[in-house]
Amino acid sequence: MPERNNEGFLEDAQCWTEEVATTIAAEDGIALSENHWEIIGFLRSFYKEHEISPPSNRLFVKAVKEALGEDKGNSIYLMQLFPGTPAKTACRIAGLPRPTNCL
């Protein structure tokens, strides 16, 4: 497992693999499904394009809605996939830096 900080985020995003994502998700009790991978793929593309993680849950939901539609771009759907703080949980699993405004 690559080195992580005290919140479980990878120290080096280049070390991310699908196996790493599966391990991090399992630590949170999440078994990754096709729906999870779709959001993880979206987040990794978002990061590659903007060089930041979505800075808050609100902007995360909005970005998902714009990219994948209303059914997936709503807080209930994202909370079911990534419990707690969806942006923070999803970014940690996707190997991305911690969103700046997430508690």
Automatic annotation (TrEMBL):
EC number: 2.8.1.-
A GO cellular component entry from the record: cytoplasm
InterPro entries (alphabetical): DsrC-like_C, DsrC-like_dom_sf, DsrC-like_N, DsrC/TusE
Pfam families: DsrC
Active site: C102
Example GO biological process: tRNA wobble position uridine thiolation
Key words of the record: Cytoplasm, Transferase
Molecular function GO terms recorded: sulfur carrier activity; transferase activity
Main location: cytoplasm
UniProt subcellular location: Cytoplasm
Keyword Transferase: yes
Function: Part of a sulfur-relay system.
PANTHER family tied to this protein: SULFURTRANSFERASE TUSE (PTHR37010:SF1)
Family: Belongs to the dsrC/tusE family.
Name of the protein this chain belongs to: Sulfurtransferase
Organism, as annotated: Marinobacter subterrani
